[in-house]
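Q: Can I see a sequence and its folded structure?
A: Here is a first one.
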Amino acid sequence: MHVSGLRQRFTSVILLTISSASLWLILGAIPALIFYSFSLLLLSLHHLRYLAALDEWLQTSAPATSTLPNTTGAWGDVFTRLTRLMRSQSQSQQQLSTALERLRRATSAMPEGVVILDESDRIEWCNPVAEQHFGLDFNRDTGQQITYLVRQTQFAEYLATRNYSEPLIVRQSRQQELILSLQLIPYGDKQKLLISRDITLLERVETMRRDFVANVSHELRTPLTVIGGFLETLSEEDQTGSKIGKRALTLMTDQTLRMQRLVEDLLALSRLENAQNQVREGNVNIVEMLRELYHEAQSLSAGRHHINLKLDTDAQLRGSADELHSAFSNLVSNAIRYTPGGGEILLNWRIEGGQGLFLVQDSGIGIESEHLPRLTERFYRVDRSRSRETGGTGLGLAIVKHILSRHQAHLEIVSEPRNGSRFIARFPENRLIIAQDNPMPKQP
């Protein structure tokens, strides 16, 4: 069809040229040129007519379905091919529109809110759930900056930092009872999906759990103190002469002390989880703190381990001295508990990559890789019998994780069975306080 159309287009021009050449030979040059020019004018008018018909046809609202102009020859082939092409394009567009509509209906039915943001964080689309969560109106707010409508300082900072690995928990200002979990997901050409989930009920349950644990722990503290005091008195007076009685007193005293430690850890964890309990920040002298911890570790080890303290910087930290002491103490005591006698333990404070780094390294029994992601969970134990022997409560690393999180730091754990463990607390650069002269601190 394409080759035939080309032949039809040039046949008339070839015949016209041959006819004009024949007239040239018979009548001379002038009549031949007049005939040739007049014929070309008629041919041009013929094409202009169909070009106008093509333009009029293309300007219709639906050229693919409208009536074709009455044409023959090459122009008929052109109109036929254009019609087929536009029908195919119309079908593809209809299929895309149908798929997009199905996707929008499916997204609208999701229990989560979904907002599509462009590269400038302007709203391109949102589903009805997102309209409820953020107080948006899709028809009114399309093209608006999301930060103009979601007026949350935390959200603006979350959007600006471009670190979307963890969701952001916010309390919606328009609805004080609504608590949302927000997650930004980059995709496509610098676009983002903003996913919002209503976690109000979950937060209420979590609050009830925290309150219950805190209240029960608080109520247990007094009776345990009384029991412990009487057991200590009985043990000192040694009123039972039998070995069984002495053994029973010893076991009761040990278990009471263990329960007291558990209650204290539960109360400490409850305080850390309380959002209203803000960090009381100050300048923390880490060098002096680690020297104290070093001497405490020597006392706890009772000479069974080789403990070294390496101070590579005298940089201080901005934070809570009590909380940081608790976190570091937990890491050090764990290393002593789970390292056999004769093992080595290293405490190190240094700056690495612009971050403050506190390291506790031991030559202990190590941990299997499948346990590492869950070590900071409450009451998670790698070996329950071993934990009972060492007197751990199962809350130490959970407390460490919460304290570091409150200081924008994070905990890294590297360990292999029989090759020891490394616990690394990394603090961001904005938490460091570095002296101008930065003299190297004296080793203990």
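Q: Show me another, different protein.
A: A second, unrelated one:
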Amino acid sequence: MWRVKSLDAILLTAEKKSLHRSLGAFQLTMLGIGAIIGTGIFVLTAEAAQKAGPGMLLSFVIAGFVCAVAALCYAEMSSMVPVSGSAYTYSYAVMGEMIAWMVGWALILEYAVAAGAVSVGWSGYVVGLIENAFALDIPNTLVRGPMDGGLVNLPAAGIALLVTCLLVVGTRESATVNAFLVVVKVVALTAFVILAVPAMNMDNFDPFMPLGFGGVSAAAASIFFAYVGFDAVSTAAEETKNPQRNMPIGLIGSLGICTIFYLLVASGVIGTVGAQPVMDAAGLGLRPGSAELTAACETVGATHVVCSKEALAWTLREIGWPQVGNLLGLAAGLALPSVILMMMFGQTRIFFVMSRDGLLPGVLSKVHPKFHTPHVITIITGVAVAAFSAFFPVGVLADISNSGTLFAFAMVAVAVVVLRRTDPSRKRPFRTPAVLVVAPLAAIGCVYLFFSLSAETKLMFLAWAAIGLVVYFLYGYRNSHVARGSVETHELDSDAPPGPVPPIPGA
């Protein structure tokens, strides 16, 4: 279980299965911005406000810092090992097969569950847009899950299934369309900042931490979801020109741009409409996404941003810009489906790499004879995402996704330090600065955020990990290509994924 796949074999695989290298630093940065800016900032602002109040500004800083140090570790690994598989591949090369399996298993939470969260976020904005533009009142029963005061979220499940169909038939957005959608999201957030920041009232920042630092930590653990996506840049390593130079630029550049937007947007929300949490009779904050909070919001007349499923559009309507709010809702409705596409595509890529290594059955990477897409795993993933989005609120899905992501990020940070010791002479086009400080900070930060998640989320992750170990020992341990001594011979060009990663997926 501790057997490793050597870096030389991994790089040889990349050469034998080489995909067309067409992405430069600008395209990678756009890919990162497109993947990062999504449901996190558009929807989780309300979740963060309910947990931390105005203190969510600190939450964004904490989550952004952890993500930044993790990005530096990712940059070294992705530039040194420019192949698909992201944290899974890095772990396989450094810490052994079982750890790699657990990382890949955790990445299922990152991608598939995150796609469900984005679907729920899309539903909130589209439903809000329809209700405000056409003066309709859509019953919560059909647009919210049972934990959120409804029965089933049909729009969220519907968009997930639609994206699944697009992936099965092989429809890919062009680079031009993806770049346009990135611009749409950036323009929408810029417009929000321009209109909201000048209208701020500093009194709305007091009290700054109504639920204490514990609330700030809990919000940071949830807000981390708003930064997830930068690692999707590393999954495009095999399609990148000069990855030794361009991967670090794409990773760190996209993260820096998004962090600036997040702080400005959060300040605009807090300063204009306030961000104080809704409390229960005992003065404790109600859990976001709960039926209790939904009932409380009905009592107060939905006058709090924490009660909104479309926080930014709602804020603009409250400060006198209803049409701009509708346009922002439209921008989210147009752009978020391609975030779902990126997440689901990333999930199939991780499954493909694990199947290619023999850790999962080969049928999962079976290619459709007509559409030339991995239709089996795409359909399985799509049905699971639709189920998640139909019955769970966005905050719960985001936290579950974060648990898997934080585990994977921590393993990458450990891998960087281990590899510096075990293979110090290997060429490193990008070296993590002060690695003995940055890498431990990344690992410790990920652990800190993980333990700031709810107890239910941590138990779900442990249960998922236990299931993963059972699957590994029943199948992967005996069938991996490393165990059979066929690290390279199975990796033929015909095994390659059907087409390159979309140039700017998730835009």
